[in-house]
Structure formats: C-alpha cells, structure tokens
Amino acid sequence: MKDKLQNKLAKRFPELSQDLGKSPKESCMAWGFSIGNGWAKLFEMLCEDLDKVRKEECPDLKFEQVKEKYGRLRVYLYGGNDHTIELVDMYEVGSGFICESCGKLGRMNGRGWIKCLCNSCRNPAWYKRWWKKAMYFLDWRIFRRCRPKSWMVE
Ligand SMILES: [Zn+2]
User: Fold this and answer.
1) Which of 35, 7, 37 is nearest to 104 (CA)?
2) 116 with 138: CB under 8 angstroms?
3) How far is the CA of 127 from the centre of ligand 1 (A)?
4) What's the rounded Cα separation, in Å, for the pair 22 and 31?
5) CA–CA separation, 61 vs 55, rounded Å?
6) 3-state SS record for the chain
7) Is the pTM of this model over 0.70?
8) Spatial contact of 51 and 80, defined as CB atoms under 8 Å apart
9) Domain boundaries, the chain
10) How many A from CA of 26 to the centre of ligand 1?
11) Taking the CB of residue 140, how many other CB atoms lie within 10 A of it?
12) What is the pLDDT of residues 30-69, one digit of tens each?
C-alpha cells in the first residue's frame, strides 16, 4: 500500500495501528499494511468496523499483521473477540472479488501464484489485444446493421 494511504489510515485509527513502525523483532506490523492499493477502500471499511468493536467491547484491540495471502486479505489481531473474528472473515471473503491492484471487480487465478486481480491488471498486453478485437467485432456488427437496405436506396 502506498505510504500516503497507510499514513492516512494510521492517523485515523491510531489505536489499531499503534504497532506500525516497530522493529521486525517486536511486531510484524514493521512491514506495514502489506496489501495492494486496490484494497485500500475495503481495508478502510474493515478498520472502521473494527474500531467500533474496539470502542465498545475490546479496548486492547490492535493489528498484529496485515497482508495478502493466497489472493485474499489476511488480518491478524491482538485482543479480539468473536465479533472481530467474524468481521475479519467477512472482509477476507470480500477481498476475493476485488482486484488487489486497481479495486475493480477481480477474481482468483486457477494456477501459479494466486492473486485476486481483474483481467486488465493480470495481463495488460493480452487484455489490450482482446479489447481491440472486441471493439472491432462490435464495429462490424453495428456497421452491418446500419448499412442501408436496398429498398431504402432505390
Ligand atoms: Zn485491476
């Protein structure tokens, strides 16, 4: 995640992200929020929900680690309860449908390094070619349909 985004979230949720910037020996939060920018909004929503639970039920709640694993958002917490587990699970499932790179609708790839991405982020060159072909096809269809019929011309 971009530093700017991370700083914004750290400022908005200082209790949850209090271990950001600690040394790697002390906390995995030393690596920051290790997720793509496409998940920034999703992660912000999770922070909002968790912060609400923190205020009402678990005052010690904080992040232990935030990362991407097997294409999904993985969050480890300290001081949570059943509600926080439920929230984290819910957002983990949600992240499986959002492109980690750009935030559009994405999906998992079946093989290789598993990531949740949209078509254009996964393979820009292929997608560009595909898009060009699709546009060409569309043009052709429209052109054929709009061609004046013989009875119109005569
Ligand atoms: Zn994308």
Assistant:
1) 37
2) no
3) 11
4) 9
5) 9
6) CCHHHHHHHHHHCCCCCCCCCCCCCCCHHHHCEECCHHHHHHHHHHHHHHHHHHHHCCCCCEEEEEEEECCEEEEEEECCCHHHHHHHHHHHHHHCCECCCCCCECEECCCCCCCEECHHHHCHHHHHHHHHHHHHHHHHHHHHHHCCCHHHHC
7) yes
8) no
9) 3-118
10) 34
11) 10
12) 999 999 999 999 999 999 999 999 999 999 999 999 999 9
Question: Given the DSSP bridges, would you call strands 72-78 and 62-69 parallel, antiparallel or unpaired?
Answer: antiparallel
Q: How far is the CA of 109 from the centre of ligand 1 (A)?
A: 13
CB 1 within 8 A of CB 32: yes
Cα-to-centroid distance, 10 and ligand 1 (Å): 25
Residues with Cβ < 8 Å from 121, sequence gap 6 or more?
38, 99, 101, 102, 106
Q: If you measure from the C-alpha of residue 116 to the centroid of ligand 1, how many angstroms do you get, rounded to a whole number?
A: 9
